[in-house]
Amino acid sequence: MHEELRLDNQLCFRLYTVSRLITQAYTPFLCQLGITYPQYLVLMVLWEQDSQPVNDIAHRLVLETNTVTPLLQRMEKQGLVKRSKGKEDGRQTLVSLTKKGKELEEQAFNCIPSGMGQRMDPCQLSLEDYAQLRSKIDTIINKLK
Amino acid sequence: MHEELRLDNQLCFRLYTVSRLITQAYTPFLCQLGITYPQYLVLMVLWEQDSQPVNDIAHRLVLETNTVTPLLQRMEKQGLVKRSKGKEDGRQTLVSLTKKGKELEEQAFNCIPSGMGQRMDPCQLSLEDYAQLRSKIDTIINKLK
DNA sequence: ATTATTTATATCGCGAACGATTTAATGCGT
DNA sequence: ACGCATTAAATCGTTCGCGATATAAATAAT
Question: In this structure, which topology does domain B3-144 adopt according to CATH?
Protein backbone atom coordinates (compact mmCIF):
# COMPACT_ATOMS: atom_id res chain seq x y z
CA MET A 1 0.00 0.00 0.00
CA HIS A 2 1.54 3.26 -1.15
CA GLU A 3 0.86 6.16 1.16
CA GLU A 4 1.15 8.62 -1.74
CA LEU A 5 -1.75 6.94 -3.49
CA ARG A 6 -4.15 7.12 -0.57
CA LEU A 7 -7.28 9.08 -1.46
CA ASP A 8 -7.12 10.94 1.83
CA ASN A 9 -3.73 12.36 0.93
CA GLN A 10 -4.86 13.85 -2.35
CA LEU A 11 -5.19 17.61 -2.45
CA CYS A 12 -6.78 17.38 -5.86
CA PHE A 13 -9.53 15.08 -4.66
CA ARG A 14 -10.35 17.51 -1.86
CA LEU A 15 -10.52 20.44 -4.25
CA TYR A 16 -12.60 18.48 -6.71
CA THR A 17 -15.03 17.48 -3.95
CA VAL A 18 -15.32 20.87 -2.33
CA SER A 19 -15.83 22.52 -5.68
CA ARG A 20 -18.70 20.19 -6.48
CA LEU A 21 -20.26 20.57 -3.05
CA ILE A 22 -20.20 24.36 -3.12
CA THR A 23 -21.62 24.34 -6.63
CA GLN A 24 -24.39 22.10 -5.34
CA ALA A 25 -25.02 24.56 -2.53
CA TYR A 26 -25.54 27.27 -5.14
CA THR A 27 -27.96 25.18 -7.13
CA PRO A 28 -31.23 25.92 -5.28
CA PHE A 29 -30.60 29.67 -5.54
CA LEU A 30 -29.57 29.50 -9.19
CA CYS A 31 -32.58 27.32 -9.94
CA GLN A 32 -34.83 30.18 -8.88
CA LEU A 33 -33.10 32.30 -11.50
CA GLY A 34 -33.34 29.49 -14.04
CA ILE A 35 -29.59 29.24 -14.62
CA THR A 36 -26.70 26.85 -13.95
CA TYR A 37 -23.47 27.62 -12.15
CA PRO A 38 -21.32 28.02 -15.28
CA GLN A 39 -24.01 30.27 -16.74
CA TYR A 40 -23.88 32.33 -13.54
CA LEU A 41 -20.12 32.72 -14.03
CA VAL A 42 -20.66 34.01 -17.56
CA LEU A 43 -23.26 36.46 -16.29
CA MET A 44 -20.89 37.74 -13.60
CA VAL A 45 -18.28 38.40 -16.29
CA LEU A 46 -20.81 40.32 -18.38
CA TRP A 47 -22.28 42.23 -15.43
CA GLU A 48 -18.79 43.58 -14.80
CA GLN A 49 -18.33 44.55 -18.43
CA ASP A 50 -21.01 44.10 -21.04
CA SER A 51 -20.39 43.18 -24.67
CA GLN A 52 -17.24 41.06 -24.81
CA PRO A 53 -15.86 38.68 -27.42
CA VAL A 54 -16.09 34.95 -26.68
CA ASN A 55 -12.34 34.77 -26.19
CA ASP A 56 -12.26 37.34 -23.39
CA ILE A 57 -15.04 35.57 -21.54
CA ALA A 58 -13.34 32.21 -21.94
CA HIS A 59 -10.03 33.67 -20.80
CA ARG A 60 -11.59 35.26 -17.74
CA LEU A 61 -13.17 31.94 -16.77
CA VAL A 62 -10.01 29.96 -17.59
CA LEU A 63 -12.04 27.85 -20.00
CA GLU A 64 -11.63 26.99 -23.68
CA THR A 65 -13.91 28.44 -26.31
CA ASN A 66 -15.15 24.94 -27.09
CA THR A 67 -16.69 24.94 -23.64
CA VAL A 68 -17.89 28.53 -23.70
CA THR A 69 -19.40 28.63 -27.19
CA PRO A 70 -22.08 26.00 -26.54
CA LEU A 71 -22.70 27.53 -23.10
CA LEU A 72 -23.35 30.89 -24.76
CA GLN A 73 -25.54 29.30 -27.41
CA ARG A 74 -27.73 27.81 -24.70
CA MET A 75 -27.82 31.15 -22.90
CA GLU A 76 -28.84 32.88 -26.11
CA LYS A 77 -31.66 30.38 -26.59
CA GLN A 78 -32.85 31.23 -23.06
CA GLY A 79 -32.78 34.91 -23.92
CA LEU A 80 -30.04 35.84 -21.46
CA VAL A 81 -27.48 37.09 -23.99
CA LYS A 82 -27.25 38.22 -27.61
CA ARG A 83 -24.41 37.13 -29.92
CA SER A 84 -23.36 39.29 -32.86
CA LYS A 85 -20.47 39.38 -35.30
CA GLY A 86 -17.68 41.86 -34.45
CA LYS A 87 -17.58 44.88 -36.76
CA GLU A 88 -13.88 45.67 -36.66
CA ASP A 89 -12.77 42.03 -36.51
CA GLY A 90 -15.11 39.77 -38.41
CA ARG A 91 -13.81 36.65 -36.68
CA GLN A 92 -15.05 37.69 -33.28
CA THR A 93 -18.47 37.01 -31.80
CA LEU A 94 -19.47 39.73 -29.39
CA VAL A 95 -21.65 38.66 -26.48
CA SER A 96 -23.89 41.15 -24.76
CA LEU A 97 -26.59 41.03 -22.11
CA THR A 98 -30.25 41.18 -22.99
CA LYS A 99 -32.71 43.04 -20.78
CA LYS A 100 -33.48 39.72 -19.08
CA GLY A 101 -29.77 39.06 -18.52
CA LYS A 102 -29.29 42.48 -16.98
CA GLU A 103 -32.30 42.12 -14.73
CA LEU A 104 -30.93 38.92 -13.27
CA GLU A 105 -28.16 40.88 -11.56
CA GLU A 106 -30.58 42.42 -9.06
CA GLN A 107 -32.30 39.11 -8.45
CA ALA A 108 -28.96 37.40 -7.92
CA PHE A 109 -27.84 40.16 -5.59
CA ASN A 110 -31.00 39.80 -3.54
CA CYS A 111 -30.79 36.09 -2.88
CA ILE A 112 -27.35 34.65 -3.53
CA PRO A 113 -24.86 36.45 -1.26
CA SER A 114 -27.16 36.23 1.76
CA GLY A 115 -28.32 32.71 1.00
CA MET A 116 -24.86 31.35 0.39
CA GLY A 117 -23.54 33.22 3.41
CA GLN A 118 -25.99 31.35 5.59
CA ARG A 119 -25.13 28.12 3.86
CA MET A 120 -21.39 28.58 4.51
CA ASP A 121 -21.88 29.94 8.00
CA PRO A 122 -21.42 26.65 9.88
CA CYS A 123 -17.94 26.39 8.35
CA GLN A 124 -16.85 29.09 10.78
CA LEU A 125 -14.24 30.49 8.44
CA SER A 126 -12.88 33.81 9.67
CA LEU A 127 -12.11 36.56 7.20
CA GLU A 128 -8.49 35.74 7.78
CA ASP A 129 -8.96 32.04 7.09
CA TYR A 130 -10.81 33.02 4.00
CA ALA A 131 -8.08 35.36 2.79
CA GLN A 132 -5.41 32.73 3.39
CA LEU A 133 -7.35 30.08 1.55
CA ARG A 134 -7.89 32.49 -1.27
CA SER A 135 -4.27 33.47 -1.63
CA LYS A 136 -2.93 29.91 -1.53
CA ILE A 137 -5.37 28.79 -4.15
CA ASP A 138 -4.51 31.81 -6.29
CA THR A 139 -0.85 30.83 -6.09
CA ILE A 140 -1.63 27.37 -7.40
CA ILE A 141 -3.91 28.72 -10.11
CA ASN A 142 -1.33 31.18 -11.34
CA LYS A 143 1.43 28.63 -11.51
CA LEU A 144 -0.63 26.04 -13.31
CA LYS A 145 -2.35 28.41 -15.68
CA MET B 1 -21.98 47.08 -9.56
CA HIS B 2 -22.38 44.74 -6.63
CA GLU B 3 -19.09 43.84 -5.00
CA GLU B 4 -20.52 40.51 -3.81
CA LEU B 5 -21.10 39.47 -7.39
CA ARG B 6 -17.59 40.15 -8.63
CA LEU B 7 -15.98 37.03 -10.04
CA ASP B 8 -12.74 37.80 -8.19
CA ASN B 9 -14.53 37.61 -4.87
CA GLN B 10 -15.94 34.16 -5.46
CA LEU B 11 -14.36 31.35 -3.46
CA CYS B 12 -16.34 28.82 -5.46
CA PHE B 13 -14.97 30.04 -8.77
CA ARG B 14 -11.42 29.71 -7.43
CA LEU B 15 -12.04 26.20 -6.23
CA TYR B 16 -13.70 25.23 -9.47
CA THR B 17 -10.78 26.62 -11.46
CA VAL B 18 -8.02 25.15 -9.34
CA SER B 19 -9.72 21.78 -9.34
CA ARG B 20 -9.86 21.76 -13.12
CA LEU B 21 -6.28 22.95 -13.48
CA ILE B 22 -4.86 20.32 -11.16
CA THR B 23 -6.90 17.65 -12.91
CA GLN B 24 -5.43 18.88 -16.18
CA ALA B 25 -1.96 18.62 -14.68
CA TYR B 26 -2.67 14.96 -13.91
CA THR B 27 -3.87 14.24 -17.42
CA PRO B 28 -0.53 13.54 -19.17
CA PHE B 29 0.44 11.05 -16.45
CA LEU B 30 -2.95 9.38 -16.41
CA CYS B 31 -2.94 9.24 -20.21
CA GLN B 32 0.12 7.00 -20.04
CA LEU B 33 -1.92 4.66 -17.88
CA GLY B 34 -4.88 4.97 -20.21
CA ILE B 35 -7.26 6.29 -17.56
CA THR B 36 -9.11 9.48 -16.64
CA TYR B 37 -8.97 11.33 -13.33
CA PRO B 38 -12.30 10.01 -12.00
CA GLN B 39 -11.21 6.51 -12.99
CA TYR B 40 -7.99 7.08 -11.06
CA LEU B 41 -10.05 8.01 -8.01
CA VAL B 42 -12.03 4.78 -8.29
CA LEU B 43 -8.80 2.81 -8.60
CA MET B 44 -7.37 4.49 -5.49
CA VAL B 45 -10.47 3.45 -3.57
CA LEU B 46 -10.09 -0.13 -4.76
CA TRP B 47 -6.33 -0.25 -4.19
CA GLU B 48 -7.02 0.58 -0.57
CA GLN B 49 -9.67 -2.08 -0.28
CA ASP B 50 -10.56 -4.42 -3.09
CA SER B 51 -14.06 -5.72 -3.84
CA GLN B 52 -16.55 -3.10 -2.70
CA PRO B 53 -20.20 -2.47 -3.53
CA VAL B 54 -20.97 0.45 -5.84
CA ASN B 55 -22.52 2.35 -2.98
CA ASP B 56 -19.37 2.30 -0.85
CA ILE B 57 -17.26 3.53 -3.72
CA ALA B 58 -19.73 6.30 -4.49
CA HIS B 59 -19.90 7.28 -0.85
CA ARG B 60 -16.12 7.41 -0.54
CA LEU B 61 -15.90 9.67 -3.58
CA VAL B 62 -18.86 11.81 -2.48
CA LEU B 63 -20.59 10.99 -5.75
CA GLU B 64 -23.99 9.54 -6.63
CA THR B 65 -24.35 6.04 -8.01
CA ASN B 66 -25.73 7.51 -11.23
CA THR B 67 -22.27 8.97 -11.80
CA VAL B 68 -20.33 5.96 -10.57
CA THR B 69 -22.27 3.21 -12.33
CA PRO B 70 -21.48 4.38 -15.87
CA LEU B 71 -17.90 5.12 -14.80
CA LEU B 72 -17.54 1.54 -13.58
CA GLN B 73 -19.16 0.19 -16.72
CA ARG B 74 -16.55 1.96 -18.82
CA MET B 75 -13.80 0.70 -16.54
CA GLU B 76 -15.12 -2.83 -16.88
CA LYS B 77 -15.08 -2.50 -20.66
CA GLN B 78 -11.43 -1.45 -20.43
CA GLY B 79 -10.67 -4.50 -18.31
CA LEU B 80 -9.75 -2.56 -15.17
CA VAL B 81 -12.46 -3.93 -12.89
CA LYS B 82 -14.94 -6.78 -12.69
CA ARG B 83 -18.55 -6.30 -11.57
CA SER B 84 -20.50 -9.14 -9.97
CA LYS B 85 -23.79 -9.53 -8.12
CA GLY B 86 -23.49 -9.60 -4.32
CA LYS B 87 -24.12 -13.05 -2.81
CA GLU B 88 -25.54 -12.06 0.56
CA ASP B 89 -27.41 -9.03 -0.78
CA GLY B 90 -28.61 -9.56 -4.32
CA ARG B 91 -29.17 -5.87 -4.90
CA GLN B 92 -25.52 -5.00 -4.61
CA THR B 93 -22.98 -5.00 -7.40
CA LEU B 94 -19.52 -5.82 -6.08
CA VAL B 95 -16.64 -4.18 -7.88
CA SER B 96 -13.21 -5.78 -7.79
CA LEU B 97 -9.88 -5.17 -9.48
CA THR B 98 -8.72 -7.27 -12.39
CA LYS B 99 -5.06 -8.21 -12.77
CA LYS B 100 -4.66 -5.19 -15.05
CA GLY B 101 -6.33 -2.92 -12.49
CA LYS B 102 -4.02 -4.17 -9.77
CA GLU B 103 -0.93 -3.76 -11.89
CA LEU B 104 -1.74 -0.11 -12.52
CA GLU B 105 -0.98 0.65 -8.88
CA GLU B 106 2.75 0.14 -9.36
CA GLN B 107 2.75 2.10 -12.60
CA ALA B 108 0.87 4.94 -10.95
CA PHE B 109 3.23 4.87 -7.99
CA ASN B 110 6.22 5.10 -10.30
CA CYS B 111 5.16 8.16 -12.25
CA ILE B 112 2.40 10.12 -10.57
CA PRO B 113 3.66 11.23 -7.14
CA SER B 114 7.05 12.29 -8.52
CA GLY B 115 5.64 13.79 -11.69
CA MET B 116 2.92 15.75 -9.93
CA GLY B 117 5.38 16.79 -7.22
CA GLN B 118 7.50 18.46 -9.87
CA ARG B 119 4.44 19.97 -11.47
CA MET B 120 3.30 21.51 -8.17
CA ASP B 121 6.80 22.50 -7.10
CA PRO B 122 6.74 26.10 -8.39
CA CYS B 123 3.75 26.74 -6.13
CA GLN B 124 6.17 26.75 -3.21
CA LEU B 125 3.65 25.40 -0.76
CA SER B 126 5.27 24.41 2.52
CA LEU B 127 4.08 21.32 4.34
CA GLU B 128 2.43 23.68 6.78
CA ASP B 129 0.64 25.63 4.04
CA TYR B 130 -0.47 22.36 2.65
CA ALA B 131 -1.80 21.09 5.97
CA GLN B 132 -3.69 24.35 6.56
CA LEU B 133 -5.22 24.30 3.13
CA ARG B 134 -6.20 20.71 3.66
CA SER B 135 -7.86 21.26 7.01
CA LYS B 136 -9.85 24.31 5.91
CA ILE B 137 -11.13 22.53 2.86
CA ASP B 138 -12.02 19.51 4.98
CA THR B 139 -14.04 21.75 7.26
CA ILE B 140 -16.05 23.04 4.34
CA ILE B 141 -16.51 19.57 2.88
CA ASN B 142 -17.75 18.15 6.16
CA LYS B 143 -20.24 20.93 6.73
CA LEU B 144 -21.66 20.80 3.24
CA LYS B 145 -21.75 17.05 2.91
C1' DA C 1 -1.03 40.71 -54.82
C1' DT C 2 -0.89 35.81 -53.72
C1' DT C 3 0.09 32.38 -50.63
C1' DA C 4 1.07 30.81 -46.03
C1' DT C 5 0.31 31.35 -41.23
C1' DT C 6 -1.98 32.72 -37.31
C1' DT C 7 -6.13 33.78 -34.73
C1' DA C 8 -11.26 33.58 -33.39
C1' DT C 9 -15.04 30.63 -33.23
C1' DA C 10 -17.56 26.73 -34.05
C1' DT C 11 -18.32 21.71 -34.44
C1' DC C 12 -17.78 16.89 -33.02
C1' DG C 13 -17.25 13.06 -29.87
C1' DC C 14 -16.65 11.23 -25.41
C1' DG C 15 -16.47 11.09 -20.46
C1' DA C 16 -18.14 12.91 -16.51
C1' DA C 17 -21.93 15.12 -12.96
C1' DC C 18 -26.44 15.08 -11.57
C1' DG C 19 -31.70 15.43 -11.24
C1' DA C 20 -35.37 12.30 -12.12
C1' DT C 21 -37.22 7.92 -12.90
C1' DT C 22 -37.09 2.79 -13.14
C1' DT C 23 -36.12 -1.94 -11.75
C1' DA C 24 -35.22 -5.38 -8.60
C1' DA C 25 -34.11 -7.30 -4.08
C1' DT C 26 -34.59 -6.74 0.95
C1' DG C 27 -36.94 -5.86 5.19
C1' DC C 28 -40.85 -4.65 7.87
C1' DG C 29 -45.64 -4.57 9.68
C1' DT C 30 -49.64 -6.86 10.24
C1' DA D 1 -47.53 -15.27 4.05
C1' DC D 2 -48.93 -10.81 2.22
C1' DG D 3 -48.44 -6.17 0.83
C1' DC D 4 -45.70 -1.96 1.37
C1' DA D 5 -41.98 0.97 2.19
C1' DT D 6 -36.86 0.97 1.79
C1' DT D 7 -32.60 0.34 -0.36
C1' DA D 8 -29.09 -0.73 -4.28
C1' DA D 9 -28.18 -0.11 -8.94
C1' DA D 10 -29.22 1.11 -13.36
C1' DT D 11 -31.20 4.08 -16.96
C1' DC D 12 -32.37 8.50 -19.15
C1' DG D 13 -31.78 13.33 -20.45
C1' DT D 14 -29.28 17.62 -20.11
C1' DT D 15 -25.24 20.41 -19.26
C1' DC D 16 -20.34 20.71 -18.80
C1' DG D 17 -15.26 20.19 -19.90
C1' DC D 18 -12.05 19.26 -23.19
C1' DG D 19 -9.11 17.06 -26.99
C1' DA D 20 -9.27 17.18 -31.88
C1' DT D 21 -10.68 19.12 -35.98
C1' DA D 22 -12.93 22.43 -39.16
C1' DT D 23 -14.06 27.00 -40.92
C1' DA D 24 -13.36 31.58 -41.85
C1' DA D 25 -11.26 36.09 -41.24
C1' DA D 26 -7.05 38.69 -40.45
C1' DT D 27 -2.13 39.08 -40.75
C1' DA D 28 2.52 38.08 -42.30
C1' DA D 29 5.74 36.51 -45.80
C1' DT D 30 7.52 36.40 -50.22
Answer: Arc Repressor Mutant, subunit A (1.10.10)
Segments in B34-98 forming alpha helices (H) = 37-48, 54-60, 65-77
Distance CA A128 to C1' C13 in A: 45
pTM of the shown model = 0.96
Helices A127-144/B99-120 angle, 10° precision? 100
Domain coordinates of chain A in residue numbers? Answer: 3-144
- pLDDT by residue for chain A (145 residues), tens digit each? 899 999 999 999 999 999 999 999 999 999 999 999 999 999 999 999 999 999 999 999 999 999 999 999 999 999 999 999 999 999 999 999 999 999 999 999 999 999 999 999 999 999 999 999 999 999 999 999 9
| Contacting residues of B for A124, CB less than 8 Å apart | 139
Q: Per this entry, what is the length of chain B?
A: 145
The alpha carbon of residue A5 and the mean position of all alpha carbons in its chain are separated, in whole angstroms, by: 30
Q: Model confidence over B72-128: pLDDT tens digits? A: 999 999 999 999 999 999 999 999 999 999 999 999 999 999 999 999 999 999 999
Enumerate the β-bridge partners of residue B93: B85
Cβ–Cβ below 8 Å for B14 and A138: yes
The nt closest to A83 (CA vs C1′) is: C9
Report CA(A91)–C1'(D24) in Å, whole number: 7
Strand partners, B84: B94
